[in-house]
Structures are given as C-alpha cells and as structure tokens.
Design a protein that fits this description.
The chain has helices spanning 53-61, 71-79, 109-127, and strands at 18-22, 33-35, 38-40, 45-50. By secondary structure, the protein is of the alpha+beta class.
C-alpha cells in the first residue's frame, strides 16, 4: 500500500487511504500533521478500530491499512523493512510517558529503578 504512494506524499491523501484505528489514542479519526509551519488535519478512514496497540500493529503488518504508532513501538519493523514511514517529512503531535506516584517517605527501589529506566530510554530516544 505505501509503495503506491509518491515519495513526497502529503497527509491530504490520508482520507482516501484505509487506516487501522487505535482506540487507546486520542483522535482515532483525525490527526494533526505539521511540516514547516503548515498544518493538515485530515479525516482518516478507519476500516477497523482496535483497542490494543499490538492488535493495530498486527493489522497493519497484515496489510489491512495504515496505522499511527510511537517510534519505539515500530523501530524494529522499520529497520527490517517490514514497515515504512508514510508522510515521513510530516510530524504528529508529540506525546509523553509519565511516571505518577503519590508522595511517600519511602519509595521501593524497584519503583526508582523503573523511573530511571524510563528517563534513560527517553533521553536516548530524543538524541536520535
């Protein structure tokens, strides 16, 4: 499907393409793409909507439609050539990962280790 798109395709084409929606993300049917100060807010055409990212990924890998994923979730598939970026010159709103926990005098070492792991992974991702 992606191979049939021109290399400099614009998200304006998005409405005419089949999409696999992810109900866990905001904007299942609309995403704001931006590039060099220009924005495009196309209505997407989800042919199927899944409520788990691995299910969306399986549908996209099966060729059902296009999907929107965080970079870290598909970096191996892109490196292996099983997935390709569409609208690669455009960006989507950034998200984030948040560690939220109540204030406490004592925080278990495993919680601190997990938060440190997330912070290191994010620093590594941003450097790319």
């Amino acid at each position: 499907m992606a191979a049939s798109l021109p290399p400099n395709a614009s998200p304006r084409l998005a409405k005419s393409l089949p999409w696999v929606g992810n109900a866990q993300l905001r904007g299942v049917g609309q995403w704001l793409f931006s590039k060099d100060g220009e924005t495009v807010l196309p209505e997407l055409n989800p042919v199927v909507v899944c409520d788990k990212t691995p299910a969306v990924q399986a549908c996209v890998l099966a060729g059902i439609g296009l999907g929107i994923f965080p970079d870290f979730a598909v970096e191996d598939e892109i490196a292996e050539g099983r997935l390709v970026r569409v609208f690669a010159d455009w960006s989507l709103p950034t998200g984030g990962i948040h560690a939220v926990f109540p204030p406490a005098r004592f925080r278990p070492a495993k919680v601190r280790a997990f938060v440190d792991f997330l912070a290191a992974a994010e620093r590594k991702r941003v450097r790319r």
